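does this look right to u?? adenosine-5'-monophosphate-propyl ester version
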Amino acid sequence: MSTQQQTSLEALSNELRRFEPPAELAASANVTAEVYEQAAADRLGFWAEQAQRLQWDRPWDEVLDWQPPFAKWFVGGQLNVAVNCVDRHVEAGNGDRVALHWVGEPEDDTRDITYAQLQVLVSQAANGLEALGVTAGDRVCIYLPMVPEAVVSMLACARIGAAHSVVFGGFSAQALVDRITDAEAKVVITADGGYRRGAPSALKPAVDEAVQRCPSVTNVVVVKRTKQDVEWVEGRDLWWHDAVEAQPETHQAESFDAEQPLFLLYTSGTTGKPKGILHTSGGYLTQTAWSHWAVFDLKPETDVFWCTADVGWVTGHSYLTYGPLANGATQVMYEGTPDAGGRDRWWSIIEKYGVTILYTAPTAIRTFMKWGDDLPGQHDLSSLRVLGSVGEPINPEAWMWYRRVIGGDRCPIVDTWWQTETGAMMIAPLPGVTATKPGSAMGPLPGIAVDVVDGEGVSVGKTGGGFLTLSEPWPAMLRGIWGDEDRYRDTYWSRFEGQYFAGDGAKWDDEHVLWLLGRVDDVMNISGHRISTTEVESALVSHPKVAEAAVVGAADPTTGQAIVAFVTVKGNVTDDDDAFREELRNHVAKEIGAIAKPRQIVLSPELPKTRSGKIMRRLLVDIAERRELGDVTTLADPAVVQEIDRTMGELAART
Ligand code: PRX
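got this back:
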C-alpha cells in the first residue's frame, strides 16, 4: 500500500458524519433491509429470484455451474437480451414511454425515442447487420460518438446474438487496430464524426486507417452525424441510412443461451496489451437490471435516469444501455462535454427533463466544484432524488459538495464500486436502507461476497486494511479474457487462492464499513478511466528518439490521478524541450488516444534505479506529487534524482 493510501486511510477512519436514508424514500423504497438477510441465507436463491425479473424463453436447469474460475449462470436458460430491453416493454403496453431523451451537443439538437420507436430502430439495425452477413457468434466493433445509434447498434447485435466490442471514440486508430484484430470483428459501425466542444470532430479517418490493417473487416457502416467529408471505399463502406433505415421494421428475434457472448470490452491491465473482457447474457442482464433497480430505487413509471458515462466504457454498457433499458426506464443520453454551450449545461438538462437520478463520476463533480456553486444554483434541480458516483474513490469534500449543492441536502448518495470485469455494481449502499458516510461505498450488495485480505490472502476480519477480493462468483462476472484463458487465471485468480483479486486496496473501518483506497497495481485511474502505466510506457518507447520511459499516476485534484512520464532520450537529441515534449504527448495520443496523453513529461539523462537496475517508481510518484523525498541512499546515482526533481519542480510551476 502506498504512503498516500496509508494517509488517506488514517483520515477516513475518523469520519464521524453519517447520513440516514430520507424517510420518504425509505418508506417507498424498492428494497428493504431484509434483502441482505435473504441473500445471505440463500445466495443462489436470491439471484434466481432476481433473474425472474427478466423474460426467459426457456427456464434454466441450474442457477450456477462453478468450475473455478469458470462460471456459468442460469445454465440451460434461454433469452433474447434485446427483447428484454425493448420488445417486452412494448408488449406490456409501455411502447409510448420515452426510452431515450437524446440531447445532442449543439443546442436544440434533440431526439425523444419511445420504446416502440426503439423497437423499430433495433429491428432495422438487426436486419441490416444480418444483410451484411453478421450472424450469431460474430463480433461487431462499434466506434461511435454518444448518438442513439450507439445504443441501437449494441441492442441490434444482442438481438442477433453477435457480440459487440465498443471502442471509446477517444481511442486512436492504433488502439482500434488492436481491438478489431483481437476480436476479429467482421463489421465496424462508426460515424463521419461527432461534436466535441462545439466543433465537429472526425471519426471515420481513424477507422479508414485502422481497417486497412484489419483483414477480418468486410464492411464499415457509417452514421451521418456531422456531415463532414469522408473518404469512401466502394463495396466496403455503407451509410447507416442506406444499410439500416431502408430495412424492414420488424425482426424475428431468436432465443439464445444464457451464456451467449454479449460483448467484449477492452480494458487496461498491468501489462501493455488491453484485455478483451468477455460478458455473456443471462447473468449479466440479471445483475445489471437488479442493481440498477435497487441501488437507484428506480421507479420506471416516474423516474428520469441520467448516467453521464460514454457508451465506450463499462458504465455506459451496464447503466445506460442494458440495466436501465431492461428495467423500462426513461433516460437522458447526452452527446457532449459538460461545458458545451455553457458550464451549466448539465444543470439545464436536469431542469429541462426533470432528471430524478443522476449517475456520474467524482472527476466531474470536482470539476463542477471548481466552477462554483452559482451555476447549479441558477437551475431548478429539485427533481433529483438519488445521486450516484462511480469510477474512482470519491473524496469526502466532493461527496459533501455533491450532496449539498446538487442534491439540496435531501438526496442520498450511492457511491458504487465495480469494474469492467465485474460487469455490474458490487459494493454500494441501498438508498432506502443504508446510512452513508461521505466517501465510502459502504459495503457489498446483497448476493455479493467481498473480503479484505492481507498479502498472504488471509482475511483481515471485520476491521483492517488490505487487498479487496471477491470470494464467491456473481452473475455479471466476466467469463474470461477473449482468447486468453491463461491470462484470465493469472490476472484475477492466481494472486489469492480461490479468490478474485480486484487490484484495489480496501479497508473496513471500526464499524465494518468499507473504504476503497484505489489501485494497488500499475493501473492508473485518470478521470475514472483505466490506463496502465506499461501501456503508456510502451507508447513512449515506440517513439524513435525515446530510450527509456517510466510512467506514474500522480494525485491530481480534479482528475483523481494524472499521468506523469519520465523519459530518457537516445543519443544527442538537441530539440527544444517544449516542442519535443509536445511531440511525445502527441505520439502517445496517436498510439493510444488523447486520454492517455501525459500531463507532464520530464526529460532526463537517466532514470532513478536501484543498484540492481530496477526503476524506483515510488520515488517517481513522490517527485511527481512534489513530496519531500525519502531515503535515496539505495540508488545507483542519487544525483539523478535531484536533477529530475528540479526539472519536475519547474514543470509543475508552469502548469
Ligand atoms: O479502482 C477501482 C475504480 O475503478 C476501477 C475499475 O475501472 P473500470 O473497469 O474502468 O470501471 C470503472 C467503472 C465501473 C476499480 O478497480 N473504481 C470504480 N468505482 C469505484 C472505484 N474506486 C473507488 N470507488 C468507486 N466507487
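Residues 267, 314-315, 390-393, 415-420, 441, 502-504, 516, 518-519, 525, 530 surround adenosine-5'-monophosphate-propyl ester (CB under 6 Å). idk if thats expected tbh
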